[in-house]
């Protein structure tokens, strides 16, 4: 009986000492969370898409609170919630937030099945990451879209789908919130986030091929050949040509569309613009002018 009592006393003493140690450790190493973080998390949409640059909404909330303590939350923006949610967060933290222009994902590849010849057959794991690790893929272009749909799997909003006829991803502008998940998933960086632009209008180079002109054209008939004609046409210094590839800076572009007309391969595209008026042939213009002149004389 004494052995049982001794065992109980020893165990009770060990439990008491352990409880005291745990209590001291909990007080000494306690992590105090700012209650505002939970309040900000409740305002954020909870998509945890990473479009803000943080692992999830809790990370974004922590950054917002720290930014408020330092006096500015500039540069922090939730693409899912947009300006409305950021306005609520700013009111909650007593800060001012700058309006951020909405962005949309664009696919910088026009290498459809017709324009890019198939030179190989890939028989393996059907993901862009796997195909890219094996080499150039099934076409001669080692830069363009692989069409396996990693971007589709990465999008949480159903804003991007693979067109079965062209083999290229297409972005639904109404669903895209500019989180950038598709751009991160693309191993060839074919997808880029760009400003949505006034009335959804934007001009960009739909090619990422950095090969020299002849090699690029051999791989894809719609490739940018780095000829520089668009650079000469631009009066706003919005275009640069580097590594045989043109790029249009969305911050400098005034969307005059002169570069689009100058591109010999059609690599530059203008989205959501009204169709251009067809140019009349010189002979037709002269004939029309002569006809109008004769009609005016008859009336006189």
Keywords, separated by commas or semicolons:
300 residues; two-stranded antiparallel ribbon; disordered C terminus; 11 helices; electron transfer activity; 4Fe4S_Fe_S_CS; 3-methyladenine DNA Glycosylase II, Chain A, domain 3; alpha+beta; Alpha-Beta Plaits; two-stranded antiparallel sheet
Output the strand order for the largest sheet: 1-4
The backbone outline, from C-alpha atoms, is elongated
Indicate the structural class: alpha+beta
Largest β sheet strand count, sense and barrel closure: 2 strands, antiparallel
> Which architecture name of the largest domain does CATH use?
2-Layer Sandwich
Percent helix: 25-40%
**Rg, Å, rounded:** 30 Å
Overview of the molecule:
The strands form four sheets. Strands 1-4 form a two-stranded antiparallel sheet. The chain is α+β, with helices and mostly antiparallel strands and 300 residues long. Residues 284-300 have low confidence and may be disordered. The chain contains eleven helices and eight strands. The longest helix has 27 residues, at 2-28. The chain has two domains: 35-93, 3-methyladenine DNA Glycosylase II, Chain A, domain 3 (Orthogonal Bundle), CATH 1.10.15; 103-271, Alpha-Beta Plaits. It is 38% helix and 11% strand. GO terms for molecular function: 4 iron, 4 sulfur cluster binding; electron transfer activity; metal ion binding. Belongs to the 4Fe4S bacterial-type ferredoxin family. RnfB subfamily.
